[in-house]
Amino acid sequence: MKKLVFLIILAAVFSARAQTSADAERQSVIKLNETVVSLYSGQKFDEALKAAR
What we know:
Layout (H helix, E strand, L loop, with lengths): L1 H40 L3 H8 L1
């Protein structure tokens, strides 16, 4: 029984950590998209292309 509780707690911790990592990755992608759109709308096409790569 103790092993089962330990495994459930361990799974919950890893699940929360994975979700946090995914949220951080999603935020960085959103920020990158905003940067590219900002550069493109400012007609800085070369810089937008570099940021997109």
